[in-house]
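Quick review question:
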């Protein structure tokens, strides 16, 4: 557990810097273009390389030193940030430059995510999986507390360069923590016989493993049905708030910070509590509650409601992510988790790649015009969401939030999902090779 906590501390520091850069670049792109589609395209290009690298990354994570893979990913992220900083300082930074740089960042980031997540099973006792995952959630949401507030303050006063230097310093802190630790390597499954597998069999192994277990298939489908509306709403969240506040970055920072505080509070409570004994309840009830509070946020017309609803929604994120991941860690042998989790994550990456484009098109080309005072939907929904700038995005946001809540409630009607923890046996304690 000590090694996990060292890695966790390094990731927390690095993530704060990365979140500051992402938040500041979001404001920069909006200031430069005023387009939800432009922001959505940044998300699209960040996800696109994950489609290409995920299955190969899964094979690499099961085969090679996970610490080394994380170090390589950190160096790549450092170089990407340096590239953006140099382009900005020489006044040559364009939006299309970000498309290329976030693509590189996203590809190596996916490698790091897989290496980190599959290390949990060999660093943490099985009964602590949910708590370990809650600490992982605390990393992202601690960053979401400080990063928007700091970036929202620094960006209009000192420009992007001040944020870049902070980000670069945090990368170094994370790099040092990875240098001083070792991660045990699991022995390969004797039954898998890599030498007997073709490349195609290796690439498709994770999907075949999930498909052969109906309960894991149900888990993957449920999260997919949740992820589609969630990613659409996430893609339009920032432009929706900016549009409804006249581009006020401090309000966006306050609402985003509230979500960060909610996420940390939720992670700490989950860490102290340990979650539901039946983890599937944490996943499904988390889906339902998250969708409910997101709906309230979309319907709300004031900063106070946005802050309160986003805080409550974010409190539930550690619960459904940690509960879901703990099930995967418990049911899938650690020596296979790279390929199996890569397959599951590839589904999510595919969704995350496509949905920003869908969200940008629906917001800019369909719903925003339809919700203008003379638009076709204004007489129906105008009384709830208004008819000014951002009303169409709000209608889309609320619709997606309702869908998320329905996935949580509907999941209880599926036996293979509801009883996943009874139908699948836990994996055995992994045999480990000496750390490299």
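Suggested answer, residue by residue:
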């Amino acid at each position: 557990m000590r090694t996990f906590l060292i890695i966790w501390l390094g990731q927390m520091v690095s993530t704060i810097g990365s979140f500051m850069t992402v938040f500041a670049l979001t404001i920069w792109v909006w200031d430069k273009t005023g387009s939800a589609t432009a922001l959505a395209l940044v998300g699209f290009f960040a996800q696109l390389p994950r489609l290409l690298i995920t299955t190969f990354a899964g094979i690499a994570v099961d085969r090679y030193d996970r610490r080394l893979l994380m170090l390589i990913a950190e160096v790549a992220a450092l170089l990407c940030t340096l590239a953006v900083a140099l382009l900005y300082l020489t006044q040559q930074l364009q939006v299309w430059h970000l498309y290329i740089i976030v693509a590189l960042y996203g590809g190596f980031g996916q490698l790091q995510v897989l290496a980190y997540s599959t290390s949990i099973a060999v660093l943490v006792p099985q009964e602590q999986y949910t708590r370990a995952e809650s600490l992982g959630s605390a990393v992202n949401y601690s960053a979401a507390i400080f990063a928007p507030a700091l970036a929202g303050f620094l960006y209009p006063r000192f420009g992007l360069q001040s944020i870049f230097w902070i980000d670069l310093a945090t990368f170094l802190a994370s790099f040092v923590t990875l240098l001083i630790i070792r991660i045990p390597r699991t022995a390969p499954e004797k039954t898998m016989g890599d030498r007997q597998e073709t490349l195609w069999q290796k690439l498709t192994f994770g999907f075949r493993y999930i498909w052969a277990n109906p309960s894991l298939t149900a888990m993957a489908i449920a999260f997919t049905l949740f992820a589609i509306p969630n990613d659409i709403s996430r893609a339009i969240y920032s432009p929706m708030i900016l549009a409804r506040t006249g581009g006020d970055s401090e309000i966006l920072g306050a609402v985003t910070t509230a979500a960060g505080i909610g996420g940390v509070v939720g992670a700490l409570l989950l860490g102290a509590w340990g979650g539901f004994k039946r983890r599937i309840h944490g996943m499904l009830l988390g889906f339902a509650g998250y969708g409910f509070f997101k709906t309230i946020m979309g319907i709300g017309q004031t900063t106070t409601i946005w802050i309160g609803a986003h805080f409550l929604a974010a409190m539930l994120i550690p619960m459904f992510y940690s509960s879901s991941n703990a099930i995967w860690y418990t049911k899938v042998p650690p020596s296979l988790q790279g390929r199996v989790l890569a397959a599951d994550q590839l589904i999510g990456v595919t969704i995350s790649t496509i949905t920003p484009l869908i969200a940008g098109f629906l917001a800019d080309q369909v719903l925003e015009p339809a919700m203008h005072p003379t638009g076709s939907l204004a007489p129906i929904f105008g009384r709830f969401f208004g008819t000014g700038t951002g009303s169409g995005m709000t209608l889309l946001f609320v619709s997606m939030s309702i869908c998320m809540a329905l996935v949580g409630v509907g999941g209880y009607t599926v036996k293979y999902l509801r009883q996943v923890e009874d139908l699948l046996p836990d994996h055995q304690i992994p045999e480990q090779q000496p750390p490299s």
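Why it works: Residues 429-436 have pLDDT under 50 and may be disordered. The CA atoms of residues 177 and 341 lie 25 Å apart.
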